[in-house]
Design a protein that fits this description.
Helix content: 55-70%
Shape: globular
Structural class: mainly alpha
Distance between the termini: 43 Å
Radius of gyration: 25 Å
Number of strands: 0
Largest sheet: none
């Protein structure tokens, strides 16, 4: 899984410190693992990474878009090492860091559908993990911190997508926080009586929460009527002279034009 993930995006390496911390804390579990076991783990990782072998094969077909031309060792390394994007890593200007951090805090409070309460419950769960499973606390915290710093420092407008692993581990903290609260209710002797009275409303709430989220965010997520790219391409191509040259600025117009020219076969000139 790690090898395949690394084949999808190099930021997968940011889980390594958290995993290493968990393994170190659970060293007794690893003692029975013999050399053959470690070799199997290494072999599985290499097997996952083998999907990179598709790149020179695909490039040999002379596709119209040939990112880095990975048929040569130099082109292959340029592509798989993300050389084109290295300057963006921790490239956010110092005067923008506060704005990035503020946007991060705002996004964190919005993620779990309950305003800041979801984030607060997640932080409570992180505290509970520190008290009850310190290895898991350390691992998830390192993963969350690594991706948080990477997203805040990555100098692109869409760097917020790198926060997805942060929300993933925060969901685990949220579960721990809810477990802690449930455990407290049970210890207080309130659970059985409360469940007898409230089990129907609780079930309705459990069903309603995802439905409410769906209704609330549907308009933002539904792109069926979003024709911005196709309308833009149509305008640009209609304005271009025969045999003309278009110089796009940035990924969005470049990818839209590539799709129009090479995917839809528009304007082969």
């Amino acid at each position: 899984a790690f090898g395949i993930g690394l084949g999808n995006h190099l930021s997968m390496v940011l889980v390594v410190p958290g995993v290493a911390a968990w393994l170190w804390a659970n060293r007794p579990l690893l003692k029975p693992l013999r050399t053959s076991g470690w070799a199997a783990l290494a072999g599985a990782t290499v097997l996952g990474l083998s999907l990179y072998l598709y790149l020179p094969v695909a490039a040999a077909g002379a596709p119209p878009v040939n990112w880095g031309d990975p048929r040569t060792p130099q082109g292959f390394w340029w592509l798989v090492s993300g050389k084109a994007y290295r300057q963006l890593v921790f490239g956010t200007a110092a005067h923008d860091l506060m704005a990035r951090a503020s946007a991060y805090a705002s996004e964190a409070s919005r993620q779990f559908g309950a305003g800041p309460w979801g984030a607060l419950i997640a932080l409570a769960g992180l505290f509970w993990l520190d008290q009850h499973d310190h290895a898991w606390w350390r691992a998830t915290l390192l993963v969350g911190l690594a991706y948080s710093l990477y997203a805040i420092g990555y100098s692109t407008r869409d760097s917020y997508v790198y926060l997805i692993p942060v929300w993933s581990v925060a969901a685990l903290w949220l579960a721990a926080g809810l477990f802690w609260g449930t455990e407290a209710v049970i210890k207080a002797g309130l659970a059985r009586k409360a469940l007898r009275l409230l089990w129907v409303p609780l079930v309705l709430v459990i069903i309603a929460l995802p439905l409410l989220s769906l209704v609330r965010h549907w308009d933002r997520m539904d792109l069926s009527r979003d024709h911005e790219a196709s309308d833009w391409v149509a305008g640009v191509l209609s304005a271009a002279d025969a045999g003309g040259v278009i110089l796009p600025a940035g990924d969005r117009p470049t990818f839209a034009l590539w799709y129009a020219l090479y995917g839809l076969k528009l304007r082969p000139d």
